[in-house]
Design brief:
Elements: E1 10-14, H1 19-30, E2 34-39, H2 42-54, E3 59-63, H3 72-83, E4 88-91, H4 106-134, E5 138-143, H5 156-176, E6 181-188, H6 197-200, H7 203-212, H8 225-232, E7 243-246
Length: 254
């Protein structure tokens, strides 16, 4: 049963205040997990924590700016000192900036690489070091993008960081399999969230999205929870280094 899939597990989820991160956090709690919620906005996190409390699970809302790379190890150590060991790490938080590549700002390029790629790597390191030291298995899920596989103009930093996260997922999976740490990814297609609302409301853009999506709709954050639950559970113990694309058929279409 779904409500037993993650019983007695603790998950740390970044970007957990809204959108995809929030949906995964709530699904994990309903499946029996306690959840550490990480984002930059305390009010959003508290609302998610209150919902999780309604499921009878523990939630720890923690604000943190993942662009502060040198502080990640200390932040992770502080969290786990309070919550106990983390069994599942889900790297959701990300940023995107849209601009023509000829004029793309250097600071926005670096920000995307820091938040979308370097921060997940450092969290993966912290998580894996703890798991190896404790001789315990673990599950890592990285949220990449269909744009790790297909190009689109005006988002060079986002695409580069997400494709980098995809190959990082494979690299860590190979290296850490010996420690029984599974490392997988989910690649969302076009998902309707607070961040994409301006695009959803842009009629020409939505028409383009629907023309490329065989299922003829935008995805929702809830569309990703099934894949996340599966990859986090014992049902996926022999799966590592994979990316599941939740894109309504986008990448399957010529």
């Amino acid at each position: 049963m779904q409500n037993q899939l993650l019983e007695n597990k603790t998950a740390l989820i970044t970007g957990a205040g809204r959108g995809i991160g929030k949906a995964i956090a709530l699904a994990f709690a309903q499946a029996g997990a306690d959840v550490i919620l990480v984002s930059r906005t305390a009010t959003e996190l508290q609302k998610v924590a209150d919902e999780i409390a309604g499921f009878g699970r523990q939630a720890w809302p923690r604000t943190f700016d993942l662009s502060q790379l040198d502080d990640i190890a200390g932040f992770y150590a502080q969290i786990t000192a309070q919550t106990g060991p983390v069994d599942i790490l889900v790297n959701v938080a990300g940023v995107i900036h849209r601009a023509a590549s000829l004029d793309f700002p250097a600071d926005k390029w670096q920000q995307a690489l820091n938040v979308n790629l370097s921060a997940p790597f450092r969290l993966c390191q912290c998580f894996a070091r703890d798991r190896v030291a404790a001789q315990k298995p673990g599950k890592i899920i990285n949220i990449t993008s269909l744009l790790a596989e297909a190009g689109r103009a005006s988002i060079p930093a986002y695409a580069a960081s997400k494709s980098g996260l995809k190959i990082l997922t494979q690299t860590l999976a190979v290296e850490w399999a010996q420690y029984h740490i599974n490392v997988n990814a989910i690649g969302p297609g076009y998902i309707e969230t607070e961040l994409t609302e301006p695009l959803v409301n842009n009629e020409p853009f939505t028409s383009w999205v629907l023309s490329k999506t065989p299922m003829q709709r935008w995805g929702t954050p809830g569309d990703l929870t099934g894949a996340a639950l599966f990859l986090a559970s014992a049902q996926a113990d022999f799966i590592t280094g994979q990316t599941i694309y939740v894109d309504g058929g986008w990448l399957a279409q010529i």
